[in-house]
Amino acid sequence: MVDQPGWEGGTKGRVIVGVGGGIAAYKACQLVRHFRERGHHVVVIPTESALRFVGAATFEALSGNPVSTDVFSDVPSVRHVNLGKQADLVVVAPATADLLARVAQGRADDLLTTTLLTASCPVLFAPAMHTEMWEHPATRRNVATLRADGATVMPPASGRLTGTDTGAGRLPEADEIGRLGELLLDNPGALPQDMIGLSVLVTAGGTLEELDPVRYLGNRSSGKQGHAIAAVAAARGANVTLITAAQHLPDPAAVETHRVISAHEMQEVLMEKAPGVDIVVKAAAVADFRPESVSESKLKKGADDEPETIRLRRNPDLLAGLVNARAEGAVPSDVTLVGFAAETGDANGSVLDHGRAKLTRKGCDLLIVNKVGRTEAFGQDTNAGWILRRGGGEEAVPTSGKYSVSARIFDAVLTFRRERADTASDTE
Description:
Helix content: 25-40%
Number of strands: 19
Distance between the termini: 57 Å
Number of helices: 13
CATH superfamily of the largest domain: CoaB-like
Strand order of the largest sheet: 12-11-8-13-16-17-18-19
Shape: globular
Number of domains: 2
Structural class: alpha/beta
Radius of gyration: 24 Å
Strand content: 15-25%
Oligomer: single chain
């Protein structure tokens, strides 16, 4: 195949960024930059309406490639066919109600819709519109059609819309759209709609234990893995609740988010929400200890009350508490419990040795074991480790993006749930 003119400015995948004609079109500029900074070739195909919000010169400068909206530009190269055929990924953001309707009907009346008809690569739509338009039965039917045709349609975020309106319909953050897109580049089948009807509860981030109004005890967890898990679950159709101590990370799209600080705050929300879900993924790095006493004022160096030592008390084990609650009936018996083990290895065993022992000790269904350190896992965009299953079975997870790791986790969780259901039916 002869390369389509215009695939310049990158060394990795070929990404088409389609832009619909909505006020959120300006956010597509951040998405183009996201892919370009990660080494991808990017071609922007806006609708004619989109250019009323952001000019072609802006998209050309950011992508390094020419921009057109109709099928009559550069006719000899047959761009309306070859762009889609040569793309590795198409991301449409914002996907307006009108654009979703035209694509669902198979329309081909501009360069973007024609390109979508010729694309055989993964296609990711990020909708943005007013809440009433998103919730309208016609839009729901169009989204269902696109998903049935194999496209991934993200649920929109909730928040401020145009004017004073708020609600579901806000375009998700460019970073979240971009990372889901990169997940599809790495694994085109990573976002099936196989979690519709399931409720997922995720914990994320490192809890902070207050020492005085200024200082705290904490750990190096950034919360990125937990937020990625929540985003991937929502993209696969689940109803997701996130309890996060990562104050600096934005809420994932279409996820009910509760922000906490300490282990006790996380425990309170966790035990309130866990009885009503199907899957709990406890990815948070909960501090094992907290100061025995908390000063009401800042502790001063050299002051008469400067502490010579800081006494610590053990925090509750949230994962063990969930397992006990399930055994006692406070949490339904069919809830799948997934834990995380951040290990370093020592003279008493390897990372995997400690993970196996922790799975036996905790009694959860699956345990994700990570090797961590000052420059490993914590704060990084990649992760690696093993998925251990109660009753036996281990799966190595090679170093990959945290969204990719999240998809692997849910593949394993759903397999576990299917096998458990099959076993239960065989014994009836």
